[in-house]
Design goal:
Strand order of the largest sheet: 2-1-3-4
CATH superfamily of the largest domain: NadA-like
Keywords: 4Fe-4S, Cytoplasm, Iron, Iron-sulfur, Metal-binding, Pyridine nucleotide biosynthesis, Transferase
Structural class: alpha/beta
Cofactor: [4Fe-4S] cluster
Radius of gyration: 20 Å
Oligomer: single chain
Shape: globular
GO cellular component, one term: cytosol
InterPro entries: NadA (IPR003473), NadA_sf (IPR036094)
Low-confidence stretches: 1-5, 7-11
Largest sheet: 4 strands, parallel
Mean pLDDT: 93
Order of helices and strands: HEHEHEHEHEHEHEHEHHEHEHEHEHH
Bound molecules: 1,3-dihydroxyacetonephosphate, iron/sulfur cluster
Strand content: 5-15%
Number of helices: 15
Pathway: Cofactor biosynthesis; NAD(+) biosynthesis; quinolinate from iminoaspartate: step 1/1
CATH topology of the largest domain: Rossmann fold
């Protein structure tokens, strides 16, 4: 089927059928592109991508890829990170409006003011930040290597950790550091997965493993449930999205309660078809991630848009922090 036969109006009306798949793959080849998808993308986007994975795995693939174009099916800071790591490549995101409430919770000016209050502190920023914030950062991290990144900093150095307060609390617990200051930002999707909801779902599913993303509002409650023996501690795992896939392949559990954005369930069900995966909160859907529709992907490939640009000076200042992130910790996270 030719491209002309695929209806692009309305944009959301494109059917992700065999013709769509053939056309997307043909255009990817024609453009010498690599198609990357985050684990929270729509199932049809995950399935057509060359690589689906977590933020760290996708950053590593973007840095190592020989393709001349990176098509990033994820949110804007992810595509921006790819551009920082691969400045000579064309980086496209199918909809540049796909933002992130967590990345919006700190600006470059706010970070500069915070640094001025703590001279000499090492700044660790989660990858969910703008290029401007990364340019003020010493080391970036993702959820899969945040603990390793902070553990790599000499114990006597103060640390400023931003912007996610729940991930920051997890890092403080795991590293046992008391000289870590945490910015009070959050992701509206993960913060909405709360402790009482988790406790209720765990009580109703006593044999289920709990896979909890450290950005979740319920992460502390999960550890409380384990600490009090309400749920056996070996059933409670705090994991990045990529580590959830690895753990799904390893667990002996027959059912798993998953606390993160619901797009994750697709990868988990593919990784371990014999396990029943249930969302702790099935309303936890990220509207930004879901802006990358099949129609938007097709349009991106046909029209070479939306191209992601990062001011070269900002990118140069951010690059060291992002490269350190890519070098530290967990090698897994994506297929
Ligand atoms: P990871 O893929 O690094 O676990 O991140 C989750 C996330 O919220 C990305 O937006
Ligand atoms: Fe940002 Fe939260 Fe959406 Fe991830 S799920 S992209 S952290 S708003």
């Amino acid at each position: 089927m030719t491209a002309e036969l695929i209806d692009l109006t309305p944009l959301g009306g494109v059917v992700a059928d065999a013709a769509w798949r053939d056309e997307v793959r043909r255009l990817v080849d024609e453009r010498d592109a690599v198609l990357l998808a985050h684990n929270y993308q729509l199932p049809e986007i995950q399935d057509i991508a060359d690589h689906t994975g977590d933020s760290l795995a996708l950053s590593r693939i973007a840095a190592a890829s020989e393709a001349s174009t990176i098509v990033f099916c994820g949110v804007h800071f992810m595509a921006e990170t790819a551009k920082i790591l691969a400045p000579d490549k064309t980086v496209l995101i199918p909809d540049a409006r796909a933002g992130c409430s967590l990345a919006d919770s700190i600006t470059g000016a706010q970070l500069r003011a915070w640094k001025a209050e703590h001279p000499g502190a090492v700044v660790v920023s989660y990858v969910n930040t703008t290029a401007e914030v990364k340019a003020e950062t010493d080391i970036c991290c993702t959820s899969s290597n945040a603990v390793d990144v902070v553990a790599s900093i000499p114990a006597d150095r103060e640390v400023l950790f931003c912007p996610d307060q729940f991930l920051g609390a997890h890092v403080r617990r795991e590293t046992g550091r008391d000289n870590i200051h945490i910015w009070a930002g959050e992701c509206h999707v993960h913060a909405g997965i709360n402790g009482p909801e988790l406790a209720e779902r765990a009580a109703a599913n006593p044999d289920a493993d709990l896979f909890i993303h450290p950005e979740c509002g319920c992460a502390t409650s999960a550890l409380y449930l384990a600490g009090e023996g309400i749920v056996p501690s070996e059933q409670v795992k705090i994991l990045s999205t990529g580590d959830m896939v690895a753990q799904a392949k390893a667990t002996k559990a027959k059912s798993v309660l998953v606390a993160t954005e619901v797009g994750m369930l697709h990868q988990l069900r593919q990784a371990a078809p014999g396990i029943e995966f249930k969302a702790v909160n099935d309303r936890a859907s990220c509207g930004y991630m879901k802006m990358i529709t099949p129609a938007a992907l097709l349009r991106a490939l046909r029209e070479n848009r939306d191209e992601v640009h990062v001011d070269p000076e900002t990118a140069a200042r951010a690059r060291g922090a992002v490269q350190r992130m890519v070098e530290i910790g967990n090698p897994g996270g994506g297929e």
